[in-house]
Amino acid sequence: MFNYTFHWYQAFRALPQMLHGALVTLEVAMLSMVLGVAFAVLLAVARMSGNRVARGLATTWVEVARNTPALFQIYMAHFGLGAFGIHLSPFTALLAGITFNNAGYLSETFRGALNAIPPTQARAARSLGMGPVRAFWSVVMPQMFRISFPPMTNQMVWAILMTSLGITVGLATDLAGVTQGLNVKTFRTFEFFAMAAVLYYLIAKTVMLSARLLAWRLFRY
Amino acid sequence: MFHTALSLSDLLFLLKGASVTVAVTVVAVLFGTALGLAFGIIKAQFGWLATVPLTFVLDVLRSVPLLIQLILANAFQSIAGLGLSPFLVACVVLSLYTSAYCAEIVRGGIEAVPAVTRRAARSLGMTWRQDMTNVTLPMALRVALPGWIGLALGVMKDSALVLWLGIIELLRSSQILVTRLQEPLFILLVVGAIYFLMSYPIARLGGRLERRWREND
Predict the structure, then answer these.
(1) Are the C-beta atoms of A140 and A111 separated by less than 8 Å?
(2) Residue B162 and residue B164: Cα distance in Å, rounded?
(3) What is the pTM of this model?
(4) Interface check B3 vs A, CB under 8 A
(5) Of A179, B18, B130, B165, which has the highest C-beta tally within 10 A?
């Protein structure tokens, strides 16, 4: 049945290259999370605002992000935007796609968290003389992040997993892209991708663990 | 005036791709749910020490990108000379992937049933199996169903990744059309609309169920 010799040594020799790719993966994931959180806060506020245009736009964004595949969103950024003369590099397209996706999912998380914060908090802040922006920024938003921290951690792991879709638009520098590059040179598909799988697992676990430590440090009273 | 070269038969080609997407999803969700139910019950029933191996495997399935899992499984089946079709490989991988998430949903549902309820059922003389089928699982279902609907839709969207194995599903068929017609934006919009129409009504239904059942608690 097995007529195949595994060449693990090759995969180990490529480890430094792949670790370098892992850094790019982390970079994309983190950037997409930072941008995604920023957009998600705006979307969550827009969806709860009285302005109908803002609400409609935000709802469209969120529903499209949540009801179409992430890969479709990345394709849209890479191939679709060309019709408007916007030609994104694979890196930017991947970042744009994941950010769009993250923002959609996170804004729903944030909306739930905002609903869980008692409205008296904002009113108390306003009655202390804070403006509406100040009250949201310094009183409501910190509580929102505290409530939605575990789902945000999950979203971060999702973002890391989604970066592997970069190979479908030709990104060659992230972990999956580097692995694919090695694969087409050597045809040792199983060895290289097994190594990549281990690295992805370790990255995801490290992120989860550090998030737990961070939450323990940040959110104790 | 808007003009497109997309003909009716091209649209049918896209719908054929959509049917492949649906087929992969249905198979994966069916087998994944069956497996996930078993894993979830095992995880809820036995202590964490006894389920360390199972937990680890399920954890790996959730922490490794699906695309990498598909590539690995496909490479493995050609190494082992199993001669499986890409469709079958995709179904197996997606089923296992689904089961990993489903196990967590099932476990959460079972653990949401108060222990006293289960003890009461047992002290009425019910066997473990009767307690499971008549008391615990029906109560767990209310907690788990919204999450399960979300999972099924997630698998539908993630099934787009099987295009890497050469399966012509919805997204891949759109790429074939783009190569021929050179209208990426319009064709992708059509594909997005198809995905959206498949996902959105069910997502709304899930959201409604979740709200309605929460009110009764």
Answers:
(1) no
(2) 5
(3) 0.91
(4) no
(5) A179
